[in-house]
From TrEMBL:
The lineage of its organism: Bacteria, Bacillati, Bacillota, Bacilli, Bacillales. PANTHER family: SULFUR CARRIER PROTEIN YEDF-RELATED (PTHR33279:SF6). Residues 7-31 form the UPF0033 domain. It holds the Pfam family TusA. This is UPF0033 domain-containing protein. It comes from the Bacteria. It comes from Niallia taxi. InterPro entries: TusA-like, TusA-like_sf. Belongs to the sulfur carrier protein TusA family.
C-alpha cells in the first residue's frame, strides 16, 4: 500500500500516538495515505475511533511482531 508519509510512534504511550497522528495527517493532502507504526496496544481502538470521528478512512491494519501498522486515508 502506498503511503505518502510514515509516522514512527513506536515506544510511545497513549495519548502520544494519537497526538502525533493528528499532527502528521495535517501535513498531508486530502486523499493521501498516512502509515502509522506503534507498539501501543490501545492505539488499535484509539486510531479506529479517531479516524471515524475525523472523517478519515482506516484502510488497513496489521500486527507485525508486536508493531501495529495502520494505513489512514485523509478525508
Amino acid at each position: 500500500m502506498n503511503s505518502i508519509k510514515v509516522l514512527d510512534a513506536k515506544g510511545l504511550a497513549c495519548p502520544m500516538p494519537i497526538v502525533k497522528t493528528k499532527k502528521a495527517i495535517d501535513e498531508i493532502e486530502k486523499g493521501q495515505v498516512l502509515e502509522v507504526h506503534t507498539t501501543d496496544k490501545g492505539a488499535k481502538n484509539d486510531l479506529t475511533a479517531w479516524s471515524k470521528s475525523g472523517g478519515h478512512e482506516l484502510l488497513k491494519q496489521e500486527d507485525e511482531n508486536g508493531v501495529l501498522k495502520f494505513w489512514i486515508k485523509k478525508g
